[in-house]
Amino acid sequence: MRAGGSASGAGAAVEISGLIKRYGRTTAVDGLTMTCGRGEVTAILGPNGAGKTSTIEICEGYRRLDAGTVRVLGLDPADASLRPRLGVMPQAGGVPPAARAGEWLRVVSRFYAHPLDPGALLDLLGLTEHARTPYRRLSGGQQQRLSLAAAVIGRPELVFLDEPTAGLDPQARHACWDVVTGLRDAGVSVVLTTHHMDEAEKLSDHVVVIDHGRVVAEGSPETLTGAERQLRFRARPGLNLDELLSALPPGSAAKESPAGHYIIEGQVGPQLLATVTAWCATEGVTAEDLSIERRTLEDVFLELTGRELR
């Protein structure tokens, strides 16, 4: 079972129950309960300030919880025996500014019994030509990739990746995706946070959406997005959707979000398509960019957490 499940989490990579973390009067994590399976990629999604990073840092042993229980590979996160079994990629930092990329990876590799080859990791992540460059002179994307390499070099059983592709260009993002996919294929458990919904949808076996420090939804990407298709089109803002719905088959739904962008949900097929285009014609409206699509994880995320900026 996952977040809020009633079954035992035996054999889980991470088990969190009733987790609470406060900073002064602010409750960052408010009774969060979730489970991350072994050998799976679990994506934790949420708006800024939802409690994602606090939760990850507690699991990594870097912060203390105020209430609840957390078990990582069956142990308390503060247990020192966990250190060689975990890989950690923080949001930023963690590397001495003067350390050269290649030298840093070689230093980190010496802490593990059977590390991956530093040169091969540099090559995989496109850092070979920067092996002698000090960390402070690397670009933000190059620093991110070096941190990812350091997180996985020890062949960990469980990897925590906090915003692993933040600030990366498309090529670098795909290189990081390849690393995450390779970890899962090797049986490594991965817990990641990301603001990229396409990344979570592509990489994860399980998604947990949190808001205000609580789980608001969980499941596989397919479960969360559902099998329903949507009809989308653009037209002038303010169409009378009640009139449109009266012409559509029972069980249909229509919304305008944002202005001038329309989404029709229901039994999307030839009849519904013909009805919508015919109604638009009677209203003197041209339906532009008309397409039939599956609901995305971004759609689900915005429905659950709202569209307002935070």
TrEMBL record:
Keyword ATP-binding found: yes
The ABC transporter domain, residue ranges: 14-237
Location in the cell: Cell membrane
Presence of the UniProt keyword Cell membrane in the record: yes
Keywords: Antibiotic resistance, ATP-binding, Cell membrane, Membrane, Nucleotide-binding, Translocase, Transport
Membrane topology recorded in Swiss-Prot or TrEMBL: Peripheral membrane protein
Any one of the GO CC terms: plasma membrane
Organism: Planotetraspora silvatica
Organism ancestry: Bacteria, Bacillati, Actinomycetota, Actinomycetes, Streptosporangiales
Any GO BP: response to antibiotic
Domain of life: Bacteria
Pfam families for the chain: ABC_tran (PF00005)
GO molecular function, one term: ATP binding
Annotated InterPro entries: AAA+_ATPase, ABC_transporter-like_ATP-bd, ABC_transporter-like_CS, ABC_transporter_ATP-binding, P-loop_NTPase
Identification of the protein by name: ABC transporter ATP-binding protein
